[in-house]
Amino acid sequence: MSNHPRIAFVGSECYPFIKTGGLGDVMYALPRALVREGDEVRVILPLYGCMPQKYKDQLEWKGSFMMDLTQDGREFFVGIMEMSRDGVIYDFIENREFFDWGNPYTGLWEDIPKYCYFAKAALAVLNYLEWIPDVVHCHDWQAALTPVYLRTRFAGTPVGAARSVLTIHNLRFQGRCSIDHLKYWTGLPQELFDYPVFKVNDQEANMFKGGLAYADRITTVSETYAQEIQTDFYGEGLNSHLWYHREKLLGIVNGIDVEQWDSRTDPLLPAAYGRDNVTENKAKNKRELQRRLGLQEDSGKFVLGLVSRLTDQKGLDLVDAVFQQMLDENTQVVVLGTGDARYEGAFRYYESAHRGQVCACIMYDESLAHLIYAGADALMVPSLFEPCGLTQLIAMRYGTVPIVRETGGLKDTVAPYNYETKEGNGFTFDRYEAGLLLDTVQRARQVYEEDRASWDRMVQRDMDKDVSWIHSARQYQALYDSLRPNQEG
Ligand code: ADP
Ligand code: GLC
User: Fold this and answer.
1) d(Cα 403, Cα 425) in Å, to the nearest integer?
2) Cα 175–Cα 50–Cα 307 angle in degrees, nearest 5
3) Which DSSP helix (H) or strand (E) runs through 121?
4) Which of 94, 184, 403, 418 sits at a 20 to 30 Å CA gap from 333?
5) CA atoms of 90 and 81, how far apart (whole Å)
6) What pTM was estimated for this model as a whole?
7) Ligand 2 mean position to 233 CA, how many Å?
8) Distance between CA 429 and CA 320 in Å, rounded?
């Protein structure tokens, strides 16, 4: 065995091929960080119809086979298409019946068969390629069945020698359906459904629950979230299950890819900048942002950004409750996101009520996201829960001060501003209350307006903060090593 482990990542999205949120960022950045440290990494992904053609054109055909799946033994096509980028090998699983629809998710009814197939096919692909990893590192509910298949259907096969890690990026999504539906699509033996492995109650099964039970180790994306999910409030119904498995649960905070997010070289910015020219060039980026979005062009305005999925998780009911009070004549708000109609509608309304001062960009737009991170003064992340959160990390790297609620990874990555010592990285509040969010925004604006020297020093501190993957990648390596039999001790 070489000193460096072989790791197979299994997950449902990965930047730049397909991304709906932070999972896509992690599936991109962590393998790259591991490869830089000398590990061998393959990333196994579905080949979605919605993946941009320019990436499809780079794929190389590796072979195909038929795989049985369902309770009645129906067979499904598994094609393998491969690409290598910066030392990471990406194996895309092709099956048009499952993956040609959606963006990439459709709805649970179709997504459950799709990810039963994917979780099993990932292991079959590793056997087919004769590339046997030390650890299969699975991500979220879509890959949660992989550890189950590994110990059951694949136990006697070459890949059965691997160990498994299952990472929780977001416990809210679990892959719940009727026991019969799951039994049919997984084709797993009856005894797994007799025991409480998947069972939620007499009718309902839960894919994530089963995966968590079978994985050799469970990780989640911050230490605080690892604790929180063992409680009623954050546990999404799985808190007792996670508490029961707490010995194998570990929190490792995410980083960001500091090459992808580098304000000094970012080609999407009109004025790139480092810590030395942040003040003047941030002002230029702000003016460009204002110009592009039809806001009053004035670099003296306090620009508050929000880049987010527009869902309950992100604390948007708090923003909605105090939106009008948050605005004053010197403040502008820029929202970029898509999601629940309720929030999309609310932000559109605020834009129409405050033209020139508020802009609601209800869309997914990578390049506008870069401009907001660079041009805004502060970024709001008032989440109800936040396993890690990447937007506050990107913001800090771009010298934009985060305003966050102290939960999950937000709590672990943003040190609150201390008015005595003038230290800290951002502004924070604890209880989930709109009044506290309002107060925190006002406190941030006050420092910005009345104590600019301290604000500017905070901007510099944020840019200096190490938000790279290096420390966390090493923690994952230690975890992988602890799972390799002759590496222990
Ligand atoms: P989550 O995974 O819960 O959505 P994260 O903070 O971990 O939250 O990651 C969100 C990622 O998605 C970040 O890279 C952020 O910049 C990006 N993002 C979110 N919404 C949009 C959008 N509308 N347009 C562009 N990028 C977005
Ligand atoms: C999830 C979480 C987010 C986390 C991301 C990547 O989507 O909501 O907090 O940063 O996964 O781990």
Assistant:
1) 9
2) 70
3) helix 108-129
4) 418
5) 8
6) 0.97
7) 18
8) 17
Tokens of 413: 């990555």
What is d(CA 321, CA 329) in angstroms, rounded to the nearest whole number?
Answer: 19
Tokens 């699975």 appear where? 138
Ligand 2 pocket member 404 (CB < 6 A)? no
pLDDT recorded at residue 2:
58
DSSP character string of 206-245 = EHHHHHHHH-SEEEES-HHHHHHTTSTTTSTT-HHHHHHT
| Closest listed ligand to the CA of 368 | 1
For atom 3 of ligand 2, the residue with the nearest CA is 389
Q: What residues are in contact with ligand 1 under a 6 Å CB criterion? A: 21-23, 25, 307-309, 336-338, 364-366, 369, 388-391
Span 139-190, pLDDT tens digits: 999 999 999 999 999 999 999 999 999 999 999 999 999 999 999 999 999 9
CA of 171 to the centre of ligand 1 (A): 17
DSSP state of 431: S
- What is the C-alpha separation between 444 and 441, in angstroms, rounded? 5
Closest listed residue to residue 245, CA positions, set 196, 212, 219: 212
Give me the count of residues in the chain.
489
Cβ-in-10-Å burial (0-12, 13-18, 19+) of 349 comes to middle
Take residue 295 and report the two structure tokens written for it.
């806001």
**Spans of the chain, pLDDT less than 50:** 1, 488-489
Q: Which residue has the tokens 């806001």?
A: 295
Mutate to test the pocket of ligand 1, among 12, 266, 385, 391 (most ligand atoms within 8 A of CB): 391
Instruction: List Cβ neighbours of 4 (8 Å cut-off, separation of 6 or more).
Output: 37, 38, 39, 40
Atom of ligand 1 nearest to the CA of 392: 6
pLDDT digits (tens, 9 = 90+) for 112-135: 999 999 999 999 999 999 999 999
For the CA of 383, the closest atom of ligand 2 is: 9
Torsion of CA 241, 242, 245, 251, to 10 degrees: 170
Token digits of residue 244: 């029961």
* DSSP states along 444-474: HHHHHHH-HHHHHHHHHHHHHS--SSHHHHH
Q: In terms of DSSP H, where are the helices of 230-387?
A: 239-244, 278-293, 316-326, 341-353, 366-375
Residue type, 223: E
pLDDT of residue 1: 47
Q: Which ligand is nearest to the CA of 172?
A: 2
Give the separation between CA 418 and CA 237, rounded to whole angstroms: 36
Q: How many angstroms separate the CA atoms of 472 and 255, rounded?
A: 7
Angstrom distance (rounded) from CA 298 to CA 196: 60
